[in-house]
Amino acid sequence: MKKKLFITLTAVLLGAGLLAQEYKKLTLEDLYKNRIFHVNSVYGMRWMNDGSFYTSMEFDRKTNSVDIVKYDTKQGVAVDTIVYGNRLIPTGSEKPISIDDYQFDNNEQKLLLATDKKSIYRRSTIANYYVYEISSKKLIPVDEGGKQSYATFSPDGSMVGFVRDNNIFIKDLNANKLVQVTTDGKKNEIINGFADWVYEEELSLTRAFFWSPDGQKIAYLKFDESEVPMYNMQIWKGLYPEDYRYKYPKAGEKNSVVTIHIYDLPSGKTSQISVGDETDVYIARLQWLPTGNMISVTRLNRLQNQRDIFHCDAKTGKCQLAYSEKTDTYVDLDRVDDLTYLNDGKSFIISSEKSGFKHLYHYENNGKLIAQITRGNWMVDNFIGIDEKKGLLYFTSTMDSPIERQLYVTDLKGKKLKKLSDLPGVHSVTFSRDFKYYIDNHSSAFLPPSTILYSAKGKMLNVLAENSEYEKQTKEYGFAKTEFFSVPISSGDSLNAYIMLPVDFDENKKYPMLMYVYGGPGSQSVMNRWNRNSWHHFLTQQGYIVVGIDNRGTGGRGRAFQDVTYKQLGKIESEDIIASAKYLVKYPFIDENRIGIWGWSYGGYMSSLCLMVGNDIFKAAIAVAPVTNWRFYDTIYTERYLQKPQDNPSGYDDYSPVNHAGELEGAFLLIHGTGDDNVHFQNTIELQNALIKANKQFRSFFYPNRNHGIYGGNTTLHLYTMMTEFILENL
Description:
The chain is α+β, with helices and mostly antiparallel strands. It contains 12 helices and 43 strands. The strands form 10 sheets. An 8-stranded mixed sheet has the order 36-37-39-38-40-41-42-43, sandwiched between helices. Strands 13, 14, 15, 18 and 19 form a 5-stranded antiparallel sheet that branches. A 4-stranded antiparallel sheet has the order 1-2-3-4, with no helix packed on it. The longest helix has 16 residues, at about 1-15. The two termini are about 25 Å apart.
């Protein structure tokens, strides 16, 4: 293994280093202020009902506005401009609105346009919405009572449902009438039609109201968060700071009580549906079946080791259990969120990890298994969809390699499996609604991102976006090549890894090594895709080797590899990272006295912990926005992997950096945004207190009012300048 790695590094990359003097020098200002490296893509792409056409959002420099342009799919040429952004002038205004997002109604006669869009948390937004009638070019405000969220057309396009002030409203476009569906919405108490903070962050649920297929009913969730503990963040502005208070359930604390409701438009009446008396559960998904008046409800128990799917009659309220799955560890719904009902209303496709790998299954609506569609020691990554006319399913998987995502097609019995993609790397695919075409966003370690149109059979038709100029730039600036290898560990497993060497790499020199880690459950940092972390390329120009490792507990390799960290986060991950560092320093070109590590979020947790418990190998660490004690993090994420702190205290405490502060020996830089609604600033404060108590010197920096991403204005440049100076000084 060592010989193979050494040959790869020297033979493949050393030759490029001979011309290092010809490379342009990267600067942090070029990367984070001037942003000279631009990647082309297709923005705001929407498939039309007829797959022969699609639309995209395009900026018109002449009018300084965003247009919506219609393209011929096969020819790849624009055939019409559906909306000219500079002409979207509301009544009573002199200025046009700016299009931030858009959606068609089902008949493609109207557009719902979002403007003045503002992020709330990771996925939630508020905006001013307008309906644009394509034929008449009429622009109609959805509501003038304040900004709205989650505006959505009814199936026939005659109405728009939306949320404002924690209540659900319906705008009847024909009658120009506003109907208020709920009236009890109240900030930090009752939420109608959208999710609370923890559902949004950990279950990827935002909009929580759904039109019935006939447009006569709306099913919605009500969140009663009145007993959820409040978290307070100070917003630093003006003479006195402002308090921002919101409901955030930390591990072991109370969650929202969620109930299911059906609003009947003709009668104006609301009924309630129940899937059990237990309220300390998660109503994680809600959707209508394609036929009849049935809704599907996905319920998870509090510890998330059981998933139940109910089919409920919207008229009678009667519910029947259609599917149930229980595990010894947990069901991560974001990974197995592939519940698709066939149009005949008789069966559904679902994904599960019950075989040890995520695969697709076909069930009758009564819960009877029809077929396991995919199988093997590899996982389905993303179930893209099913062409019901031809009985073909499309998905990406790890069949070729855990670090790749390739596109496959098969039939409902899984007998006619065929690979459609042909380039190594990572493929992210969207099909046209009629499954005649697909667009593939692809990249690899050696090929920059591209957006290419294919026929359903895998024939390339047109290049929609390519990045040859970007690739040329990266060569001119001597971006490091990314090489993949594996690290053997004592458990008998091997860990996937990548390495980036200086362009003038000399095998006879010794180089400092900076390890990058994320390491959280189901995540992957080591993948055969274009490495766009510009800072890592910059560091290689400063003479550093950069290495990334995917420890046990990460994704892409099946349930046994991933679930090994269950009930004890931090233990095995830190063992693997430390073991990897000790393995790598055996190579003569790596300086064993100059080994550092850095990470963000879960990666900040890992870098903090590894510097402390691995103080014999790591000399410096940077932790950005780290979790430092899992007791401070939210219920859904934390309890999924650790259970409740009341039931598993050692799992929370044994590998908390707060409890290892006394072991700090190297240089430590701790960074956090004070406006982080996700990983609270409290985490950094508590670690600071522990380090001070242990009389350990360290550096820390706080970004006022910045959220978990720490960005805005000069923030990114400032952040990476500070981190660079720390690395240059301490490694």
